[in-house]
Amino acid sequence: MTGKFITFEGIDGSGKSTQMRLLADVLRSRGIDLVTSCEPGGTPLGRQLRQAFLETEDTVAPLAELLLFAADRAQHVEYLIRPSLSAGRLVISDRYADATTAYQGAGRGFDPAVIADLIALATCGLKPDATLFFDISVETAVERTANRGGHEAKQNRMDAESREFYTRVRNAYLNIAAREPERFHIINAENSIDEVHRMVVDTIYGILA
């Protein structure tokens, strides 16, 4: 038996990480065998890579960023996602390959063909069964990011990106959703946490049915 692979995507401040935690609590309470993970940082090596290039004050070259994300994903697929799916488990990841298309492709301006080849190499062709995209305006996302506290306030290089950058990223996600409507499920993340949670649960149950 092979499990299902579901990814959560969205620009920073969309609330997807919070929603993944809430969903995981519901699914586990109902006896679903579930693995939650994230990119970057879903494996021990990935956590080291995350610290090296996302939680650093150093300037990171765009190409280095692209390649390090790919390295993290290759490790993630090989040592966490594929084994979990082979064991029949549900895997939900906070970000996956679509993030590279949006952030490094549209955001940083890398050639789409280069992005596609690198994603294919890192994932060995593994695609999610479904993707939830938490859509939010750039203005709301920036406001939420500025006001968040606790663990999420830990320094992240992406927090310093411009509104123009995040507009390109959001538009890239929407373009993917338009190309792959069977896989992409758009969640209106402008709503309250409870309202978004209800939408997520309904969507996931529809996917798992």
Give a written overview of the molecule.
The chain is α/β, with parallel strands linked by helices. It has one domain (5-208): Rossmann fold. Helix content is 55%, strand content 12%. It contains eight helices and five strands, in the order βαβααβααβααβα. It has a five-stranded parallel sheet, sandwiched between helices. α1 packs across α8. It is globular. The mean pLDDT is 92.
Descriptors:
Rossmann fold, 209 residues, five-stranded parallel β-sheet, alpha/beta
Q: What is the CATH fold-level name?
A: Rossmann fold
- Quaternary structure type: single chain
| Anisotropy-based shape | globular
Query: In the residues, how many domains can be counted?
Result: 1
CATH architecture descriptor text: 3-Layer(aba) Sandwich
Beta-strand portion reads 5-15%
Write the layout of secondary structure elements.
Blueprint lengths: L4 E5 L6 H14 L4 E5 L5 H10 L8 H25 L3 E5 L2 H11 L4 H12 L6 E6 L2 H10 L15 H17 L4 E5 L4 H16 L1
Parallel strand pairs: 1-3, 1-4, 2-3, 4-5
In short:
This protein is of the alpha/beta class.
